[in-house]
């Protein structure tokens, strides 16, 4: 807000002021006085917001975090289990305001002296964030040096301040830090005492419109236009639209915007819902020939206490609200000729978790789970001495619904539907078989369209089935072991393996099952006893081994199919981006020979493609060489390369190059190895290296 020395002098002046309206307001306002002296320290977070998928360098989410002392920063999960702060937006915005003389535009009157308490308040309120929200990913056009235009992804972060101003930051993707900031524009909302913010994104006749919905602690709700000049295909409103204007002192707690399709009007529409006290305010917006139509009303009789949290399933429009007494309401929108109405039903958490107090809810991306933050409720009319916060998960879909949604999904990415796959995983681990209807439906999908997504889904099912057949570990494997890990050399596997050794080998693979079953309430000891009974009986043991070998063979066959399909894609990129007899770092000849080595594999597309590539290569082989001994690395295995001197290198699953360095990447589920891109790599190889895992769709880092 000004030079450090001047700010310190002003703080001392206001704290010791004889005017109680100045001194008391200064001492009690934690924005001015974050240290607080005798007051509790300002530790922790006030609010956080997740970006859409695909914003960081690994294709995952960014996290915008607002601390209790009003510092807004952006963090990213660049390495596994390691969070890094990329930029401090509070500091950058303060520098911008300082350069502009704490004025939004040049025409504004010059600001007063920092020693005046109203000016001191103004400078703080225009920089103290209340809420921040991410927009969806949008496309901008960038002009290259040769005057070509290329589409670049960007995302917007709107930050609402105490004085009602909104700063809209535009970031180029992937977001790497300060250098990825494209612009920052400030909008005046005109809302006094703002409390909540949300993006309004609406699509009509392939034209995307956007705006910002702002709610006030006094009650009003309105949409503010956001002019996105540089964003391709986006439009905004001509003027603000007031959704609710009554100053009825019902503070707006939360706002959600849900895109829906109106079955009667035959067009897309936008449903805005806001929690106001114990009521839900809703507003239906749709564009017709007459212009923008607005229908609004309130849903009453939901809760006897104010709503503390609200979430929405954007796939079907279902809204969930909760109050602190442990009651959750499910609101299902039903369209009428004119607008819509809500059917609501009560979800009593007390029947599931006992007497609890609820503090927040959130629905998973595909609507499979509802996460609820709870603490103990009253016992015998008394509040608990200590509060133990827990995150509970309630399933909202059955296994059959989750499986059907995965089969008909338009996303075709298992990683983006991980909540649905978790329901399927739980069912197979519990029943130890894949349901017949799911197997038949999946086989039909594979036969009809042959998309690799369904092959990856099949691989997922087979792996979980294989895991369910294994013996559960006797103890939880993620807990640190304090036992001595040393073993005698005489007890090495070369001296013969006992049944206990074999069980130890399988315990690592079955660790996921123990964690999953513990969370779902399955008794691990029972599972282990069943497995022991089966293995102790020689007659029952042989069919189990045969079953495991059969599943293993199926897994290998599906993995080989997915590998071949990706090899074809890599060879297609090689053919499109190389000249005659050009040496790329990709082992092209080795991949071609590997594809054609199996006599049972007859793919006309692959044969034609390989024929064209071999013509281009003009009898050249361009083999890879071992960096230690300079011997040739033959391409005999898709996972590793071994030279004649026995040096072994892991192969990158994205480009099939050998990773001859100590640093490489792994997919999230540790399925595959990938190398890091190098500066000398051409653009098309860098693009290949940005892809997800070919087996499980997970990002690689």
From TrEMBL:
GO BP terms: namely: transcription initiation at RNA polymerase III promoter
GO CC, alphabetical = transcription factor TFIIIC complex
Q: Which residues form the DUF5921 domain?
A: 398-475
Q: Which organism is it from?
A: Aegithalos caudatus (Long-tailed tit)
Q: Where is the Transcription factor IIIC putative zinc-finger domain?
A: 618-668
Per UniProt, residues of the Transcription factor IIIC 90kDa subunit N-terminal domain are: 6-397
Its protein name is TF3C4 factor
Q: Which InterPro entries match?
A: DUF5921, GTF3C4, TFIIIC_delta_N, TFIIIC_Znf, WD40_repeat_dom_sf
Entry-linked PANTHER family: GENERAL TRANSCRIPTION FACTOR 3C POLYPEPTIDE 4, GENERAL TRANSCRIPTION FACTOR 3C POLYPEPTIDE 4 FAMILY
Q: Which domain of life is it from?
A: Eukaryota
* Location of region: Disordered: 488-543
> Residue spans with biased composition (Polar residues)?
507-516
GO terms for molecular function, please?
Answer: histone acetyltransferase activity
